[in-house]
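During the no-cost extension, the postdoctoral fellow (Dr. R.K.) reprocessed legacy sequence entries with the updated structure-token encoder. One reprocessed record is reproduced below for audit purposes.
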Amino acid sequence: MTYIEVESEEDLIGLLISHKTLRTYAFQNLDFYKVLKFVNHQKFEDCIFLGCGIPKRMINDNLSENCMIFPQLNVPYNSFPNKLYTPKTLFAGYQMGKPESYEQTPDKIIFNHYIETGKEADDIKETLARRLHDHSITDALYGYLAQFDERKVVAIMGGHSLPRGDQNYIKIAKISKKLTEMGYLMVSGGGPGAMEATHLGAWLSGKSDKDLQIAVDILAEAPVYDAPLWLHKAFEVLALYPKSDYESLGIPTWLYGHEPPTVFATHIAKYFANSVREDGLLAIAKGGVIFSPGSAGTIQEIFQEATQNHYLVYGFASPMIFFDTAYWTTDRPVYTFISELAASGKYQNMILSTYDSIDDVVAEVQQFAQVLV
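Re-encoded structure tokens follow.
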């Protein structure tokens, strides 16, 4: 049985006007008090209500016994979000030039609550609220991704400590910019460093490389995420370039909530469970994953992606592109190790390459998309 999801007030009103009986619908985060004038003698049968406001008379008169109601829980976040976050929603209340104002934003309030109740909370209400939240975010994520060709979703992984202004930061931004302009949806872990560079490049797509350099120069005045004006400089760039015709997707986690999410991602799927977030991020990047220099977290993601490709978990293998040959063959010789395993047959379905050139990385992504057509 498939439930039809209803997530907007407009769609809800349309249903109430046109149906006498509503069967197997899932209503998410909707306020029925606002549309009560449209609720007359309709019957709701085998419907699911997730975090909805429902008048008592409607429960008594309109809902059948096999309807399921999941109420909002008393936590400082919505357990049933019906859409992805944006910088506007996560950073509501932030004031430029006042770093302390970040403490009053929803992102930081949720993180503080997350720490206070424990990363592995013992309270059943809290753990249930988090699981329901992450389930709803995944639902919203796949609803968002439905508009894109799965072969045109590409992720860039890399270190959170990569300073703004570093040559690799600029190169990652340029790779993302080029691919975005070619119709790819760029995805990252949604945090600082290489992740931010991914979304900066996407945000400035359609603009000149000179504009990109101007933005990087502003950002480099607060090079790392714990610099006092790190967020201020990002919003300063947004004030200079307030509109983008392109989208990108960040997928951060409150597990690393001490690292604020990037403001340059137009859509943000933020999770409590890092394991769900990491596996899901790699799962959707069917157009390929670009691994820029990073430490333990990036290396973990490399082996997660290799496992997904080896077992063809999602139907086919996608390219694993290692950016910065010296880093991945000498400093952290992961590319060498995986290549040897693939050559010996211990890893199968590997599509491996290593490049130092922006154009070579872009060409590799393009070539794979064309092979699958």
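The mean pLDDT is 97. The chain has two domains: 4-70, 143-372. The remaining legacy entries will be reprocessed before the final report is submitted.
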